[in-house]
Design a protein that fits this description.
Helix content is 70%, strand content 0%. It is built from 2 helices and no strands. Helix 1 runs antiparallel to helix 2.
């Protein structure tokens, strides 16, 4: 039995010398591939989140316009408005969970590095550039 163990250890050591560097290179390659795949998955998730958020912003804009233009009169209409406001709040909450937060713009100086605008609207309430 001792001879078999010694022979097996000898074969193991010989193979380790011959194949050890190749096995180590394969382990490193596997690790690199795993890291690249993980990074690609993260990047893909960020792109998908951005696309969905951009499309949902148009929906939120429609909600905001609707809330400003419609005044519920009956209890039934008030219940419907509450349901829509609950959905609106849930979307805003979900955006927050994804790290997407509202950019405050009213009453704040316009910063070209941070804000984006197609046009400005003059106002007597604020100085120019705010």
């Amino acid at each position: 039995v001792e001879e078999k163990i010694a022979a097996a250890n000898t074969v193991y050591e010989e193979n380790k010398i011959e194949w050890g560097p190749q096995i180590e290179n394969l382990r490193k390659e596997y690790s690199n591939i795993s890291d690249r795949l993980a990074n690609a998955a993260e990047a893909g998730q960020a792109v998908a989140t951005k696309e969905v958020a951009t499309k949902l912003l148009a929906v939120l804009d429609n909600y905001d316009r609707a809330f400003q233009s419609v005044e519920p009169e009956t209890d039934e209409q008030k219940d419907i408005e509450k349901a829509y406001k609950d959905v609106h709040a849930k979307i805003i909450s979900t955006f927050g969970e994804l790290g997407i937060n509202e950019v405050k713009t009213v009453g704040i100086e316009f910063d070209y590095e941070y804000h984006s605008a197609v046009m400005t609207k003059p106002s007597e309430d604020y100085e120019e550039g705010i």
